Amino acid sequence: MTLEHRSNISKIISYSLLTLIAVAFLFPFAWMLASSLKPTSEVFSSGASFTGSRLAWDNYTEATRQTPLGRIILNSILVSTCGALLTMTVSLLSAYAFTRLRFRFRDHLFILFLGTLVLPQEVLVIPLYIGFQHLGLVNSYTALILPFAFGAFGAFLIRQFILSLPLEFEEAARIDGAGDLKILWHILIPLLKAPVLVVGVFSFIDYWSAFLWPLIVVNDADLATIPLGLQMFSGERGTDWGPMMAAVSMSVIPSFFIVAFLQSQLEKGVTLGAFGGR
Amino acid sequence: MFTWVSSESDRAQWQAFVDAVRETDPSFNLDFSGPSYNDYYTKAKTRMTASDAPGILTTQAARTKELVGIMAPLDDLIKKHGVDTSVFNSAMIKGMTVDGKIYALPYDAEPCVMFYNRQSFTAAGLTEPTTGYTYEQFLSDMKALTADGKVGIAVKPNLMDNAPGAFAYANGATALDDKGKLSLTSSTFVSSIQKAFDLASVNGYAKAPSASDGDEVAQGAFTSGQAASIIDGPWMYATFAEQLGENLGVCVIPSDSGQAIGVIQGSGFGIGKNCPDKDAAFKNIMKLVSPDVIGKVARTRGTVPSIISQIDGWAEGKPAGNVDAIKFLLDRGTALVTPTNWNQIVTSFTQYCPEGYRGSRTAADILKDLQESAG
Question: Biological process (GO) annotations (chain A) (predicted)?
């Protein structure tokens, strides 16, 4: 067997495996779309069939009639975008403070800050709710966005990158009279674009899929995000699966474009971890 | 009012109450808000502690104990306004009572029943069951109905509103003993649950569910004709009737004696602990649970009324046999009284019961684990 033959066989195997994996990942989406076009009564009773007795396009009109779906999708985009921007800002500033500023107990405080990573969200929900209630911020966009912008994950990730940067750039800038914010803005941010965007992308995904906190803090349907909105199809007497699947299909569209737009950053996010932040 | 209201069907339910009250009191107004039915109990505990919390809230009898911390007892108001609680289904009042205090007045009383497909029974040459149904007869019917890829009964991965719990209560077992302690390992409870498991693992009269199925898979099997029967609550009557029409039959739960005891579930209206004007809130509740309003909602929405004198509203247009089965179980019903960690118990049962249905674990084994972890 020639080297070329071996290379071709290896390519065929690789592509076959990749195709299988792609099909496995795409299948739930295909099933979701197929279910969105089945009458509700047939979503669970049509067995392995991709089609129902008719194409139920009315599921899509029902989905928008039963819930303020447009508003719900816009809420998710607004909350996730603002949350991601705030998380990037807070993470960058705190990472800079924990790396470059000198103050007492800095490293001890950082370890304490990192310790918050082990606290599950369920533990934080009640104290957070009580705090927001006292501030009169329950049932507001602020309550949806603010609490989870101050996590330690982003600060930790960016801090590791700052640590790997040579101090000489900053020292040169400081000799030229630059202060901390100027150094951060003109020297560090251009070098930290990749990790900051990775933090933004992960944060966007977290906000987009958050359920428990929005459930607790939102009282009006007008403030609901997509995970809450989809629950509006479930009632005491069952779930309207057809319209729900139609709503899921529609709510996936913005995230599809966002992921396509940020694909290179997502890839960086995966590879950054693999190389230990260098 | 704080309640489960996010779906269209739920909104229609509460609007039916408002409309019914307005027929005699046009000035009556009631705003309702809240999350979906599935998220209600998670949300209620925080929402009802807020300074702007709604005055009235709803609760299921089986979960009243869980909400006692955010609800006000109604006994003094019941006494003050001379409300006669004996007109309500006694099992529902018992379900709404915690430590001797009534926390809500019920609007429905729904005994778990067996729905069956009349056409399937007739095609198999079987006599339709109604108010008397022995387990022996049930097994014989299931055998005749299981053929050509179709099964006799559809089972869900749940404890209640389903074969396991319904069989246990029908035979006189309850989740709590006389002293209020969890008693999942009593011999009747264990043998009844095992009977439900055997339907799939031994007899092959049912398909074993998986833990992730939810209710819909079994319900879909029943409405599509893949299963000839299902055990569920009467709140599913309209949904099933929409699919099966005149072919929808209702009978009592099969039991050893043939005279099943019904396990009655339902919901009611209570008052939030922080409500600033509990008297005004109670007056509104009195309007919502007046016999006239309960009867009208039973007629328009198909809720089995908590006031038995209003059953005719619910029975309108339904076959006599179906109504008889519901009446029989209401008369011989017991409340689903549960401990505060009931949600943990039923969630664990959902996780473990597929092993029982597949025959890899016995009911005694699963229930022993549940009793030890939650008892």
Answer: transmembrane transport
Facing residue for A232 by CB, picked from B6, B216, B220: B6
Which one, of B364, B354, B360, lies nearest residue B184 by Cα?
A: B364
How many whole angstroms from its chain centre is CA B173? 16
pLDDT value for B108: 95
* Low pLDDT (below 70) residues in chain A: 1, 46-47, 268-278
Name chain A contacts of B242, Cβ cutoff 8 Å. 41
Q: Is the dihedral of CA B87, B90, B92, B94 positive or negative?
A: positive
**Contact A204/A84 with Cβ under 8 angstroms?**
yes
For this complex, say whether ipTM is above 0.90: no
Place of tokens 């930290």: A192
Do the domain assignments include residue A80? yes
DSSP of A138-181, one letter per residue? SSSHHHHHSGGGG-HHHHHHHHHHHHHS-THHHHHHHHTT--HH
For the segment B216-221, the average pLDDT, to the nearest whole number, is 90
The DSSP bridge pattern shows strands B262-265 and B333-335 to be parallel
Grouping H, G, I as helix, E, B as strand and the rest as coil, residue A12 is: helix
In terms of Cα–Cα distance, which of B55, B94, B33, B14 is closest to B271? B55
Q: How far apart are CA B26 and CA A147, in angstroms?
A: 45
The answer as to whether A108 is a domain residue is yes
Check which CATH number belongs to the domain holding A151 and give it.
1.10.3720.10
Q: Which residue of A has its CA nearest to B42?
A: A216
What the block records as the tokens of B84 is 């006669």
- Write the residue in A45, A215, A237 that is nearest to B226 by C-beta: A45
Q: Tell me if A64 sits within 8 A of A70, measured CB to CB.
A: yes
What value does the mean pLDDT of chain B take?
Answer: 93
Distance CA B229, CA B137 (A): 14
* The two structure tokens encoding residue B1: 């009012």
CB atoms within 10 A of CB B51: 10
Residue type, B111: P
**Cα–Cα distance, B269 to B74 (Å, whole number):** 10
Stated as kind and residue range, the H or E segment containing A203 is helix A193-209
- Give the integer Cα–Cα distance in Å for B20 and B12: 12
Our count of domains for chain A comes to 1
* Cα–Cα distance, B345 to A171 (Å, whole number): 62
Distance from CA of A48 to the nearest CA of B (A): 13
For residues B261 and B192, what is the distance between their CA atoms, to the nearest angstrom? Answer: 13
Domain around A249: 66-275
Contact B160, B336 (CB under 8 A): yes
Given a contact cutoff of 8 angstroms between Cβ atoms, the answer to whether B234 and B305 are in contact is no
Between CA B204 and CA B210, with CA B206 as vertex, the angle to 5 degrees is 115
Taking CA–CA distances from B238, the nearest residue in chain A reads A237
**Does the distance separating the beta carbons of B36 and A231 come in below 8 Å?**
yes
pLDDT tens digit string along A10-55? 899 999 999 999 999 999 999 999 999 998 878 877 667 888 888 9
A194 within domain boundaries: yes
Residue A231 lies in a domain: yes
Angle at A214 between CA A149 and CA A154, to 5 degrees: 20
DSSP-assigned letter for residue B227? B
Q: How far is CA B174 from the centre of its chain?
A: 15
Place of tokens 């039959």: B249
Residue B14 token pair: 């509460």
Do residues B350 and B157 touch, judged by C-beta distance below 8 A?
yes
